[in-house]
């Protein structure tokens, strides 16, 4: 608990630094377009992440928590589609879709945990979640390798 | 598990954090998870402290030598790397909290 509070305070301090002294933040700045909203988009990402974490931690034991978390993901997806803050928007957008799918599967588990109706879906849902996470890992690896290759060609 | 806990530096179990195995949900205790396993935040402390220490060392060196390049590098550690480390630790802590709930 104490470690969590320290880490949250340090993150808030870093976000304040991000707004006030934006230099030396590397990809947290260079991945975003120039603009009044786009330039500080990682603040929005931080707020979304914090809202998701708070929802899952506080309301995680109730069914309502997962609905709220899915709602936050949907809002993130729509906001990204409207603002398009990144230089390349496809990767972050697909990553949010992965998060939404995992949360959707988690919701399915939560709603069916006391169900006596055993199906293939209820029995193997954990494998589906691992499959989605593996697909996310593979997708991001491909993106990183492609960016590395394009950077090398650019040089 | 008790003898292993004495080697907490290398195995990750940290007596600083609580080991409330009694309160664990049955889905975790039935697969022999312990409270100490879920409260294993040693790697988070290391990951968060590393950029702070590296940045501080570089800042001191830059103050002594007066080289601006090293000072800028220390800022990268304090900002870019530390933020990445903190976000990783935040997600890890959150997962542990959700699992323990």
Percentage of β-strand residues of chain B: under 5%
Task: Give the overall shape of chain B, derived from the CA principal axes.
Answer: rod-shaped
**Number of discrete domains of chain B:** 2
Query: Mind summarizing the main beta sheet of chain B?
Result: none
Q: Span between N and C termini of chain B?
A: 23 Å
Overall 3D shape of chain A:
globular
Topology, number of strands of chain B = 0
- Helix proportion of residues of chain A, in percent? over 70%
The helix-and-strand class of chain B reads mainly alpha
Overall radius of gyration of chain A: 18 Å
Q: Quick one: how many beta strands of chain A?
A: 0
Main β-sheet of chain A, in a few words?
none
Q: How many discrete domains of chain A?
A: 1
Query: Whole-number average pLDDT of chain A?
Result: 83
What proportion strand of chain A?
A: under 5%
SSE arrangement:
The complex is a heterodimer of chains A (155) and B (101).
Chain A: H1 2-20, H2 27-30, H3 41-58, H4 63-83, H5 90-112, H6 120-123, H7 125-154
Helix pairs in contact in A: 3-4, 4-5, 5-7
Chain B: H1 2-5, H2 8-11, H3 26-29, H4 35-38, H5 42-65, H6 68-100
Helix pairs in contact in B: 5-6
Write a structural description.
- The complex is a heterodimer of chains A (about 160) and B (about 100).
- By secondary structure, chain A is mostly helical.
- The relative contact order of chain A is 0.07.
- Chain A is about 75% helix and about 0% strand.
- Chain A has one domain (about 30-155).
- Chain B is an all-alpha fold and about 100 residues long.
- Chain B folds into two domains: about 1-40, no CATH class; about 40-100.
- Chain B is about 70% helix and about 0% strand.
- Chain B is built from six helices and no strands.
- Chain B has helices at about 1-5, 10, 25-30, 35-40, 40-65, 70-100.
- The mean pLDDT of chain B is about 75.
- Chains A and B meet through helix 1 and helix 3 of A and helix 5 and helix 6 of B.
